[in-house]
Predict the structure of Odorant-binding protein 34.
Amino acid sequence: MRMLYKVFFGSLVLSNVFMSEVNAGSTREQMEKLSQGFRNTCINKLGADRTLVEGIRDGKFPENADEKVRCYPKCIATITKIFKDGKMDMVAVEKQARIMMTEDIADGMLAASDQCFKEIVNEGDDCDYVFRYLQCTYLKNPDIFFFP
């Protein structure tokens, strides 16, 4: 448990360091660098298969994914504070997008996010909800999809 806290807080410290270097209009490389700490924290916390998680990042959403993999997007969304009270927080999603992405990518991602927010309903399983929401955003605009 102690190690989990060290990893989590280490990720937060790293994210703050990177956030001070990253401004609106970050390159994909900068986004990748920042998100690596979040990714490692959630993979370690959940015990998720790294290969399957990497697949999600490439738009591969296996229907038969185990709970660990299905909960990975929720873990990331919770750490980045875009998931609250059983739903995606669209104000926080926009804030994160504007900080992390170039304007054109943020605009496209936010359009997809807004559509998915309206289409995807949380039926009581938060992991499934965020997994389906993320899959929806990928399907709406795969060319600009990014998720840690």
